[in-house]
Amino acid sequence: MKVEIITIGDEILIGQIVDTNSAWMAQALGDIGIRVHQISSISDQEAHIFKALVEAEGRVEVIIMTGGLGPTKDDITKHSLAKYFGVGMKQDKEALENVTSIFARFNMPLLEVNKNQAMVPENCQVLQNLKGTAPGMWFEERGKIYISLPGVPHEMKGLMESEVIPKLLEKGNLPALVHQTLLTAGIGESFLAQKLEPIEEALPRHIKLAYLPKLGQVRLRLTAFGASKPELEKEVEGFTQKIMEIVSDHLIWKGDGTLSQAILARLESLKKTFATAESCTGGYIAREITSVPGASKSYLGGLVPYSNALKIQLLGVKEETLTKFGAVSEETVREMVKGLLERIGADFGIATSGIAGPDGGTKDKPVGIVWVAWGGKGIIQAKKFQFGKDRLVNIERSATVALTQFLTFLKEVPLE
Amino acid sequence: MKVEIITIGDEILIGQIVDTNSAWMAQALGDIGIRVHQISSISDQEAHIFKALVEAEGRVEVIIMTGGLGPTKDDITKHSLAKYFGVGMKQDKEALENVTSIFARFNMPLLEVNKNQAMVPENCQVLQNLKGTAPGMWFEERGKIYISLPGVPHEMKGLMESEVIPKLLEKGNLPALVHQTLLTAGIGESFLAQKLEPIEEALPRHIKLAYLPKLGQVRLRLTAFGASKPELEKEVEGFTQKIMEIVSDHLIWKGDGTLSQAILARLESLKKTFATAESCTGGYIAREITSVPGASKSYLGGLVPYSNALKIQLLGVKEETLTKFGAVSEETVREMVKGLLERIGADFGIATSGIAGPDGGTKDKPVGIVWVAWGGKGIIQAKKFQFGKDRLVNIERSATVALTQFLTFLKEVPLE
To answer: N- or C-end of chain B: fewer Cβ atoms within 10 A?
Structure first.
């Protein structure tokens, strides 16, 4: 089964937004053994939609469209589809109830344009959108499947997971597919590839190894296709074990997890708490940690002491330290961790201080310099990093190295 | 002049990478009045490249391809193009010198595969790539222009700026293009559309209004095409002013800006400071604020007092308040803001407390309930919101409403 993704809307064509939906959908479809053959981004004009549909029909069996389902005039997807299939519109009762209940929940009056969101082409099956007012739509015509989803990422994802993926699986004839993911950090893609060369050479044709790099992290993904799922699982687990042995120094998590999840899981086993003090990362670490459900079990909280005065007041960093060594220094980040342990009462702590940029660098401390410290009572460790000039990249990289160092440290802390 | 961008390579189709190149190229082309008509992402197979080229020729005058120009076996773009045009390959002297000098600079031996990078189809003009070993290529055939660029972002950007844009400008006859963006918050897309209906009806055919919604925010974008840039600018500014009047209550920013930028700009005008205390948003607000360069001018810092003990210790929230009303209550968020003003010494503060989910709700306080407070000395305001069940969505929505309420409040604070 081959799929074409068609994104509808000028915002992609003028470069106002980066199309992250397609990559997410391609991964989700790949996970169930469905290959994306082409991605086409087109404008929100009826003629263009028609032409793209005709072309896609010549290439694939399933066409997934995103975008153009909002209540405003530039949202023309569903009327274009009705015209394309030569059918009228109908009101969908469930979709109307959904819109009505969403507006009721937010205490807002229901406008006529919103009621119109429950209107869909007569020949479609409605895919109920629990995260928004625009229903998804599923058409089977001319031996092909056409799916229309909203372009808002969390609505699209919700519909893909709750409706599209299960319905495509029902269509059957999909090969068995097994994935395994390993998260590594602190080692580059090409070095990993070098270490894993013998494994790659030993992989049979039906198992693929992919490298998915992100700032400071590389996710390794094994994908296997075949007839028997249990056999594939056994085979993949064998290779996974071999890879884990080879990359053990850099392995963070087996499965689809994050650094934050690994840290929280480890702290739960240790029955210990931790806290964060972030200057240059400005809340990035706190946000990553608290995005994990149940983080409050081990995470007491965080400080973002952006000003020096707050570093002194909240964490007891000595004024002398700041004057003598500066806010971006080993001494300061060590005292920040000390403050987390002594003042906040955490068992462990992480601290960051750096110059994220684009301005604020000096000759001795150029933009991109970052000090990170981490530890617990009696052992505080610190390390300096030098990154580039891009503020957002520096913040993300700093957070990643801080979390990686902290996790590596936690792995050595014995269970009680 | 209309352009189609064709990205060649499986990494986009399997979702391994997000295609950021196309958005960058679309913006760069839009800046000189060239419209991207379609973006197609295809696999690195000769037959697929041929088919995509034939289709694109039916749509546009200029086809820009990226990807498939590396030294490895899966990079087939230039051989496919030679075959497509029915020509042989030639060695380009300048391109060979470029490859040789790059390898010499890094002290690496020049392999045969690298020398092959200087081989190009006979009918192309070479676009010298100063940032990498794969030359760009420019073809004029059958009344169309075909451009092939490497997929590595900084190489593609370098070639676009130094070669492609200047050569396209030479071709002349480009229409002028003008964009204007307005950021609104706290009003849904459909309500905005209702308010702006008279404007939409008054818009001439060459000016388009688009609605780009995100959680809690909607970006409005006017796009105009025409012969004279100054005239278009005047026209667009006229409509922009009318829209700004109509949506003034919800207007955050004129231009491509964020809520955080608007808040920081306002505080800089007021010469005041602020701080944040986030329970349920867990650092999301701090991160948004500190992602803006120069945030430290007005932002003293933030607290993420996840545990009740920290709410008491750091912000002076009364134990009695927490016991009597709970951490998720109007009383608690008000005391959190008070703590920011009195203990942290900020002129203004924002506080959030809620149940982000997916667990932790009760009958009285279901998942998705969020209390937000904001204010300065003498005036603290608070508001309750009820969101859904998705943790990450609740966090983002809570941060957006908190920042929106705070900005609305700040707009009323008089300049000194």
So the answer is: C
Chain A residues whose CB is inside 8 A of the B289 CB are 282-283
Q: What's the one-letter identity of residue B241?
A: Q
Selected residue of B287, B353, B398 to mutate for chain A interface (largest A Cβ count, 10 A): B287
User: Which among B195, B217, B304, B387 is the top mutation candidate for probing chain A, defined by the most A β-carbons within 10 Å of its own β-carbon?
Assistant: B304
* Pair A246, A220: CB distance under 8 Å: no
At A404 the pLDDT is: 94
Q: Which amino acid is at A402?
A: A
Please answer whether residues A333 and A402 qualify as being in contact, where contact means their C-beta atoms are separated by less than 8 angstroms: no
The pLDDT tens digits for B232-287 are 999 999 999 999 999 999 998 898 889 999 999 999 999 999 999 999 999 999 99
Q: Contact A52/A42 with Cβ under 8 angstroms?
A: yes
Three-state secondary-structure class, residue B135: coil
- DSSP for A91-131 reads E-HHHHHHHHHHHHHTT----HHHHGGGEEETTPEEE--TT
In this prediction the pTM is 0.79
Measured between beta carbons, the chain A residues lying within 8 angstroms of B366 are: none
CA distance A412 to chain B (A): 26
In terms of DSSP H, where are the helices of B10-111? 10-13, 21-31, 46-57, 77-85, 93-105
Distance of residue B238 Cα from the nearest chain A Cα, in angstroms: 21
Under an 8 A CB cutoff, do B303 and A303 touch? yes
Please report, for residues A186, A350, A368, A411, B93, the alpha-carbon distance to residue A406 in angstroms, rounded to integers and kept in the order given.
Answer: 12, 7, 20, 9, 52
Express each pLDDT in A58-80 by its tens digit.
Answer: 999 999 999 988 887 778 999 99
- Which residues on B lie below 8 Å from A339 (Cβ)? none
Is the pLDDT at B93 greater than 90? The verdict is yes
**A12 to chain B: which residues are within 8 Å by CB?**
22-23, 26, 39
Which residue segments constitute the domains of chain B, with CATH numbers given? 2-171 (3.40.980.10), 176-254 (3.30.70.2860), 259-412 (3.90.950.20)
Question: Per-residue pLDDT averaged across B403-409, rounded?
Answer: 94
Is the confidence at residue A342, as pLDDT, over 80?
A: yes
A37 CB burial (10 A radius; 0-12, 13-18, 19+): buried
Cis link prior to B153 (omega < 30° from 0)?
Answer: no
3-state secondary structure at position A236: helix
Q: Report the alpha-carbon distance of residue A337 to residue A405 in Å, rounded.
A: 14
The whole-number pLDDT of residue B399 equals: 96
**Cβ neighbours of B299 in A, within 8 Å:** 306
Q: Do B212 and A302 touch (CB under 8 A)?
A: no
**Residue B293 Cα, gap to closest chain A Cα (Å):** 7
Q: Do A210 and B16 touch (CB under 8 A)?
A: yes
Look at A72 and B163; give whichever has higher pLDDT.
B163
pLDDT for residue B106: 67
ipTM score: 0.79
Using CA coordinates, name the residue in chain B closest to A277: B303
Shortest distance between the Cα of A86 and any Cα of chain B, in A, equals 25
